């Protein structure tokens, strides 16, 4: 019996899980787009956001975290405390997944987490001088950043 595309392990999904803490964060790490969907529906563990911000501090800045993930800095501090609410909302989890997906692609295209973080913070001519990290606040902006990374990957720097 053939597997459907939704049930096939996806290396991109695996990279997202790794950026969010892998097995130390998720009791049952997901490896397919369908499993990612189901995990987002349940809400990611708060620890996934904490780990992601530790790895990519630019996302955790006060002027960025609320726009990108929908979590205020104050709420993030509460998530870090012992006994805090264990899960992010569905919306926050979806935004975190998309941000991690784009960061994973940036790491793949640019070669390192450091290069990916620099890319996110520097204005890009191809994005009308906007910083990619600022565009992650909306689905349309995130799509622009993904397309820009695709062009970089193929050597097109328009």
UniProtKB/TrEMBL annotation:
Q: Where's the Antitoxin Xre/MbcA/ParS-like toxin-binding domain? A: 106-155
What Pfam families does UniProt report for this protein, alphabetically? Xre_MbcA_ParS_C (PF09722)
Cited InterPro entries: Antitox_Xre, Xre/MbcA/ParS-like_toxin-bd
What name does the UniProt record give this protein? Answer: Toxin-antitoxin system antitoxin component (TIGR02293 family)
């Amino acid at each position: 019996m053939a597997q459907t595309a939704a049930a096939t392990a996806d290396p991109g999904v695996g990279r997202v899980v790794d950026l969010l803490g892998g097995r130390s964060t998720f009791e049952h790490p997901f490896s397919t787009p369908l499993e990612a969907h189901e995990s987002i529906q349940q809400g990611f563990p708060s620890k996934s956001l904490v780990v992601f911000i530790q790895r990519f501090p630019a996302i955790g800045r006060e002027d960025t975290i609320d726009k990108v993930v929908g979590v205020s800095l104050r709420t993030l501090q509460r998530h870090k405390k012992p006994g805090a609410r264990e899960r992010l909302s569905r919306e926050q989890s979806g935004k975190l997944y998309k941000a991690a997906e784009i960061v994973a692609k940036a790491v793949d295209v640019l070669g390192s987490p450091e290069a990916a973080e620099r890319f996110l913070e520097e204005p890009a001519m191809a994005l009308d001088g906007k910083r990619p990290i600022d565009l992650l606040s909306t689905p349309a902006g995130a799509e622009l950043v993904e397309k820009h990374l695709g062009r970089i990957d193929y050597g097109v720097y328009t």
